[in-house]
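Structure ticket #2291
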Amino acid sequence: MSNGGSSRVKDKIFKGMGLTATFSCLIILLIFIGFIVYQGIDRLSWDFMMGLPSRFAENSGIYTAWIGTLWVLVLTTLVSFPVGVGAGIYLEEYSKKNKWSNFLEINIANLAGVPSIIYGLLGLEIFVRLLKMGNSILAGSLTLSLLILPIIIVSTREAIRAVPRSIKDASRALGASKWQTIWSQILPASFGGILTGVILAISRAVGETAPLIVIGALAYVPFAPAGPLDEFTVLPIQIFNWVSRPQHEFVINAAAAIIVLLLITFMMNGIAVYLRNRWQNKMNW
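Resolution: structure written out below.
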């Protein structure tokens, strides 16, 4: 057999292995999700969504958990979005290419793969102890912001890098300054990719438990937080608390809470896909 024929056979084998692995993972994922939905769908109700935690499974709800989750998501977005996008713009458009910038880029890329519990320890030392924020929503949000900042910075740089050079050159040729070019041309052209990266990063933050446990987020909070300095719990911690209990009724509660968390995650990913496609279509016009 010739080298060309051998390469085609290897390509087909590799393609088959990739498809098999992909469909196997999808089937396993669908089985898991189906089992969770089967267990928890009957528990979902208005009373469950608006109920406070209780030591009795039939009276327990997730009101404090999903309110805390919303607080954390909003504050994390408000902190991480401007800082991450601003850092990405600076590194891509203003930073000079030298040893320091190369060192910085390598470390940002490496930070995206650091285990989340390390960020929890960092948040515990800086926000909880040094700045004396305690186990508050603000401390949790700042910790999660540190966790997702490298992802936002990298996605922002990739989105800006994808903008055709001709757009930048045409803007500068017409007399626009560097900042005017960035604000009026580069950011609108890359905003879909930037927003997609931000939403996907925040979707990761939704399911993080380890950093919040480290900084002292509570498993039982009998009240809904009313401000950023209040104590809080979130859905992943509430789910962990219920799963660790021996009563089967709490496992059903956990399955129902997982459905709510999945819906939040799927909704955010759907928004990311919609915004990306909308901005791509707009740029194609």
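Closing remark: The longest helix spans residues 3-40.
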